[in-house]
Structures are given as structure tokens and as C-alpha cells.
Amino acid sequence: MKRGPFIAGAGLLGVIALVPALVPSAVAADEQYGATVPYARYEAEEASRSDGTTLERSDDIESTAIEASGQSYVALKDQDSSLDFTATSAANALDLRFTLPDHKSGQVQVYINNDLAATLTLSSETAWQYVYKESVYDEPTLAPGTAHKRFRFDEVHTLLNGQIQKGDHVRIVKVDQNDTEYGIDFIELEQAAPAIERPEGAVSIADYNNAKPGDGVADDDALISAMDAAANTSSKVVYIPAGTWEFSRKIGIDYPGLTFQGAGLWYTNIFFTSDQREGGGIVFNPGASNETLTDFYMSSNLKSRFGEGAQYKGFAGAAGVNTRVANVWVEHFECGFWMGAYRDHEHMTYTDGMVIENSRIRNNFADGVNFVQGTKNSTVRNSSVRGNGDDSLASWASNDLRSQSDADASKFNSFIGNTIELGWRAGGIGLFGGEGHVVKDNLIVNNFSGAGIRISTVFEGRNFTYNHAGMTITHNKLVRTGTTDDFYGKKRGAIDFEENLEVGQVLNVSVTDNLIVRPYAEEISANFDLDSEALRKQGITLRDNKRDDEAVATEQAQIVNHVLVGDQVVRTVPETENYSLYWYQRDERGAHGTINRYWVSKADGVAITPDMEYSVEGGKRVYNVTLADLPQYLPTSTDFSGSYDYVADLERSQPADDGTTIVVRFWSAK
């Protein structure tokens, strides 16, 4: 494998005068890979921090920080401690990724400049899992003592009471007076479009059973009545208006050709209230086909996998032909999508030609999407898949024996142009048998407990002996993927092959033109020989895959500048700043290619002594010095107008002994 060098901070010393703009981190904005998304990310470590905060950073596999974007987050420790972000574009909606200790909750407030825009309740109740080999536990008391803590971050989002403009300050402030640390990973800001109105001819859930959003009354029957009515109209549209609609059980779709239209994923909230097994989710029943589901947020009260027996998926079943799910946000289920039927062979139905696109599939206990039980010709594209607890995207050619399904092989499924990140168990993408799958143009980031992409026969089913057409894995970017411990003590490469010979070999797979950046272990690994003869016999192609650890810093090319006082960041430095007023300290890699560059103000480095003259302006002491690598004191008798050009004033971080603010005025010799 070709290895590119790691970038050293010293190699960047010569670009002081050409500092790029302060921009948000953009994991999903890579021009060549990943999803195109409507929001901008702002990393906590790149914000200005108040007192009472600490930067937590670690690559240790058991640390909380390793689950954070870029393996770092900021802890708000004290009441009123805060982070201050500068918006680079307009926004009216916010998503916040956070961590709290297990079974803790609290509040933060969001300010736009000095105006309160939202109060957010943070809770860890839908997070925190304890993993021991193949088992996952909800409580540490139920797990073996050596179980691994995982799923320590969650998210909360809201429309804001106010409009953010470019250049505005967005502050996140800890409200509570307690000893709990509120860890902030990042915020994402978005300009949400106006709510979608009821389409002409649509049947609304609000037309039935006096259903109202947010009233605490289950809306199950109202939605079923709306589906029954819509099936007999020419539009076949069910409209779900803005607000929170509560459902106490699974909702089955029985009619073909329906459209479920929400007001938008920032407006329509479908919430399943049960915390029990089989308590919720949308199920495609045998009559379902050619469905469209779009523009809503969907979550649940599920807090446990129930030992892999929850049967509580966001979407499940066989969706027939040409079903489309778009602009949907699916969160806090057992899985986001588990697409396949479990019926005896005579009554077996399939998913064919399903499209999942422009969606957000996040923070589920297990898989983000898995195409199973003969699902074919189906795709996930241009979606954000984040924080899931099993394979983020997968196609498994399962053949369930208990139901005697005798299912066909899954084939010709694809995962194209998605951003997959922060998975805390298994792979970013998994291919488990079948035929003809394509994995292309994906950006896979921070998958630290498993491979970025895995190709495997560990699960029984219609495995690679059916793969006559061959599978293609090409032009994907894998950043900080693979692992030193997959819960079984094994290392996994960024791309990993694994065979269980009792099930079968991996056959006919082409892995080409993939970019691997800073993997946790190897670039490509396997539990069988990858020599040329073995690859030839099994029809495996490995070509033009490269490791380039500089790619993070060059393709996304973001440098964020910070001012230090001691070891604390006190503010960021705008691009318009004169960098000759600062001493360069060091560079550190941040999230997704960002370089955090640290500086010390020369005003803090000037030695102020009692014999030095100063003027008093606006109640502040003003001392004059030359602008040089080692500034020299200038007495008040200096011919400033004749011999020097004024450069800038900088305040020292520490006042005089009497509390007076000290300003250092810099001059450049003519």
C-alpha cells in the first residue's frame, strides 16, 4: 500500500500571512465524496470558550472523546459556562451533539448575539450502551465488568426563535448549577425552508378523530382513517401537518401508491411513545408498493435493544416496488430501516427498487439501513448516517430459516454519495453476500469500533457464491476508520475482509480507487491471504487504493486560528487580523481536516515594568512598543508621527495591579 506522510505542524510555519477564512467544519462538504447537505457544522473546539470549560481530547479507544467528531469535545463544567460560535451563513435551525453521564439530564440555552433563541433539554436516557462481545446491555450492572461503554453522545435539535445572520454570534450556555459536565461536540446550523402546506386534494390526519398535535392523545386511529380515506381518492396523499403526532403502536401500510407528506423535517414530528418490544415504527405490509414518504422527523421512546429482540425499527417489512423515502430524519429506533419480509416462502414479498435519499439516519441502537431477505435494486444516496450502533449501511443476503422464507438473494443494491460517521459498533458499510452491489462516492469518518467498509461471510445466507455479476467498491474516502479492538480483541482495517469458511468465501469483489486517511489500524485487512494468487482464485481485485494522511488537510483545507492565554483558548482570530501581532505556537489536527493553529498575543508577552511610561485613554493605560519579533518599549517622548506608523492596539489579558486595563500600542518604523 502507498503511504503518504503525516503533516507536521512545523511544515506550516511559512504561511502566516495567508490565513484562510474562519469557516465551519464541513464533514459533508467534501467536493468528491459524501452527501451534499443544507447545514454547516461548527466544532466545539473551534469556538471561543468562557471560563469553566475544558477541552477533552483523546484517541484512547475507551475514552468518551473518541466518540466525538475529531476525537475532541468541550465540557461545560460550571453554571453559565459557554461556547461562542461565529455564524458563516444565515440560519434559523440548530442541531446540537452532546454527551452527559448515564442517567443525567440538564438544560442549555441558545443565544443569538444577546437574545435568547431556545432552551434545550439534554438527556442521556436514549443513549449509553455497554458492549461485551456480541451482547449489548442497557445498564452497567447487567453487563460484565469488562464491557465497553458506548453510545455516549446523542443529539437534540430545534427551530430557533430568531434569525441568524452571517457574522452573528451563537452562544451555547449551561443553565444549571451542578457538578455534571455537559459535553458539546458540535452544532449544525441550517436555514430551514418554510413549512410545506397541505397539498390540494390531500387527506389530513387532522381531519379524523379530532386529532391535534401535541395534546398527549394517541393519533394512531386518526392516521389509519386518513390512510383508508386517501386510498380512495385520486391524489392518494396523506398530509401530516406541523406539530408532534403521537403513536402508541406500529403503523402498518396496506395500500399501494400512497404518499405520506409531512410539513418538513423541522416541522412534522412523528413520535412513537412506547418503550416496549415491538412498540412502534412504520411497517410495509403485503399490500404496500410504490409508496412515497417524505418531509418529516420520526423518533421513539425506545431505550433498549432488549437483547437484540426489540423488533422496533423505524421502517421495516417489504416495501414492494419503487417505494421512495426522502427528506426524512429517523432517530432513536432499534434500526433506522430493516427492509425485508419474514414470511413463509408461499407468502413471501420483497422490496425492489427502493430509494432512500436526502435523509438523516442517526443515533439508532443498531443498523442505520440494512437491505435483507431478498431486497434488490435498492439504494441509499446523499444521506447523513450518523451515530448508529451496528453497520451504518448494509446489505445482507439473509435467508431466514425460522420463517421458512427461502428468500431470494439480495442483489444489485447500492450505497452512493453518503456521509457515514461516528458509528460506535460494527462497520460503516457492510456487504454480507448477495450479488452485484455497488459502494461508491461515500465519505466514512470516525468509525472507531470496526472497519469503514467490511466484506464478510460471518452471517449465514445467500452468500458470495451468488455473486456472479461481481460487487464494486470504488471511490470512497475513509477517514479515521478501522479499529484496534472490535469487541473481540481483533484489529480491523479501514477496509476489512472476513471469512467464515463454514458459510463460504468472499468472491468476485472489486475494491479500487479508495482513499484511506489516518486509519486506526491497517489500511486493508483480512483473515485470509491477500497475496496475488489467492486474490486471483477468489476473483478479488485490489487496485489503486491509497493511503494519504495529508488528504484531510489538503482537500478540505481549513485552518482555524486561536489565541491562547496559558493553555486556554480565549478567542478565535479572524482572517483580517494582522498576524505579525502574534507569536505562532503550534498546529494541531482538528475534526475532518481542520488545522487548529494556536497563537499568543504579543501584548501578553511584553514585560511591563514600573519605570515604563504610559498614557491614560478612556480609563485604560496605553504603553507603546515596536512591532517586532521581540517588541521594544517606546517612551512617550518618541517622535511617533515622524518616525513610526501606527499598527494596532491590543489589550493584555491581565489588568494592572489596580485592575486597570492595559493596552499595548504597536508601531512600525518608517
Automatic annotation (TrEMBL):
<dbReference type="Pfam" id="PF22816">
    <property type="entry name" value="CatAgl_D2"/>
</dbReference>
<dbReference type="InterPro" id="IPR033801">
    <property type="entry name" value="CBM6-CBM35-CBM36-like_1"/>
</dbReference>
<dbReference type="InterPro" id="IPR055149">
    <property type="entry name" value="Agl_cat_D2"/>
</dbReference>
<dbReference type="GO" id="GO:0016829">
    <property type="term" value="F:lyase activity"/>
</dbReference>
<dbReference type="InterPro" id="IPR012334">
    <property type="entry name" value="Pectin_lyas_fold"/>
</dbReference>
<feature type="domain" description="CBM6/CBM35/CBM36-like 1">
    <location>
        <begin position="37"/>
        <end position="191"/>
    </location>
</feature>
<dbReference type="InterPro" id="IPR011050">
    <property type="entry name" value="Pectin_lyase_fold/virulence"/>
</dbReference>
<keyword id="KW-0456">Lyase</keyword>
<keyword id="KW-0732">Signal</keyword>
<dbReference type="InterPro" id="IPR006626">
    <property type="entry name" value="PbH1"/>
</dbReference>
<dbReference type="Pfam" id="PF22815">
    <property type="entry name" value="CatAgl_D1"/>
</dbReference>
<protein>
    <submittedName>
        <fullName>Pectate lyase</fullName>
    </submittedName>
</protein>
<feature type="domain" description="Alpha-1,3-glucanase catalytic">
    <location>
        <begin position="229"/>
        <end position="490"/>
    </location>
</feature>
<feature type="signal peptide">
    <location>
        <begin position="1"/>
        <end position="28"/>
    </location>
</feature>
